[in-house]
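During the reporting period the student researcher (J.K.) took over the structure-prediction task from the postdoctoral fellow and processed the backlog of single-chain submissions. One of the processed entries is reproduced below for the supervisory committee.
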Amino acid sequence: MSFSDKILAWYHENKRDLPWRETLDPYKIWLSEIILQQTRVAQGMPYYFRFVDAFPTVRDLANAEEEQVLKLWQGLGYYSRARNLHAAAKMVVQDYNGVFPTSYEELLKLKGIGDYTASAISSICFNEPQAVVDGNVYRVLSRYFGVDIPINSSEGIKYFKQLAQEMLPPINIGDYNQGIMEFGAIQCTPKNPNCEMCPIADGCLALAKGTIKNLPVKVGKTKVKKRYFNYLVPISITEAGDKITQLRQRKGKGIWQNLWEFPLLETENEAELDQIEKSYGEILNLKGKPQMSLYNKEFIVHKLSHQHLHTKFWIVEEVIELQEGIAVSDLKKYPVPVLIAEFMKTFKF
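J.K. obtained the following structure tokens:
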């Protein structure tokens, strides 16, 4: 049996029962692929159902408000995926009359779709001979063929794409692509792969040379930036007895674009009370001196891929004439970062 035949045989016997494998609808395949980028299956599956229920067709997604899309995405992180998802849906409706492109080249024109996603959709839905290359595929191929070219180098990206393409079977291309990714996810895992029960172990060069733990090779780790966030949480009571606070929408190209958060003071280092007191009036557009307290003495460290946010929440109470106030009961309507959502949950407004 060839390499691809062994992968296909293993896949048909061991594949997980996943909802997007019950359809060849490119819209649903696309949804699953975008959701599962940098997300585990167990975490992503509820979001897949949530999006399919809210937006049964690509037209429904295209016609949605961005805030609704971001709210449904809340908790998945990497929110640019959600914005690109929404933009691509609009492109499908406007440029393709609501019908997903059927070729790799046309799929690449959609916002947020790169080589991997275009290859996955075109091969799974339309059996186009395009090899997928994700982290799982890199791992399987680098170990089986004993390739130590860094997978995040331009040379490595080109080499592994060509190698993956050469491994494609003449038929059942979609199943093979799903199979090799599945194989890397549950058989040829990053740590402690099950080599004793591996159907391709007899040809695996890394196993023969004892280099399993060294492959794949990845060079040049990105330096993690440390940032200090101080959130000012204003609380005011209206004459009717309703509790209100304030959220602001993040703009620009940084993290959490278009999500909502409490008014923020970012400092170069850990901020002391006097530093906050000098700034809160201008940040909140307040006069007078309300009561202020620190909610968490120890930093809440929120880790993103390239930065760690050392966060403190400062409660500003007895605020008079709070501008652009939001009823606490309405906070759940706003798409917010997980960091803010967790605070809202524990603070129990």
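The committee noted the following: The domain at 225-347 is CATH 3.90.79.10 (Nucleoside Triphosphate Pyrophosphohydrolase).
J.K. will present the remaining backlog at the next meeting.
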